[in-house]
Amino acid sequence: MERYGSHIAALARRAERDHRDFDPAEASPADVTNYLQEGAGQAIWLYVEARTGGRLVPFSEAELSALQDAMNTWLELYARCYGVDLEAEFTVREAAELLVDTRNIRDTAQLLTRVPGRRAEVRDSKRERTVDSK
After folding, report:
1. Alpha-carbon separation of residue 75 from 36, 41, 102, 115, 120 (angstroms)
2. Cα distance between residue 35 and residue 73, in whole Å
3. 56-59 contacts, C-beta under 8 A, 24 or more apart
């Protein structure tokens, strides 16, 4: 693990810790944000950073696997916050392409996992508008 190795190792350890400490009964919107912004989003962005700007930083097989496993762990935890058990097997490349296209980690996670479902998202959005207008 060369240039990004220590960062990837730290992400992998944090993903393992988050997975170990996850309690579905205690899951909150703050957890969703954390798993996406501080977890999966960081893993995906590291990949984007290494692959853009005219330089193609090579990842070893172990680095790429660790990065992908960490990202998938956080996407699984994100889904579990919505009560959905998911076995994430996404590539960091497909996630990076979506993140570059959407520029939003929540949209990226929703497109990859299909969680929350589109109907729930629309319903929650309407509920928020109703509460805000009161």
Report:
1. 7, 10, 17, 10, 18
2. 9
3. 57/3, 57/4, 59/4
Confidence of residue 55 (pLDDT cuts 50, 70, 90): confident
Write out the two tokens for 9. 């190792």
Helix ranges restricted to H, the chain? 5-21, 29-33, 41-51, 61-81, 92-102, 105-113, 118-133
Domain with 80, as residue range(s), is 5-133
If pLDDT is split at 50, 70 and 90, which confidence band does 1 have?
very low
Q: Is the pLDDT of residue 123 over 80?
A: no
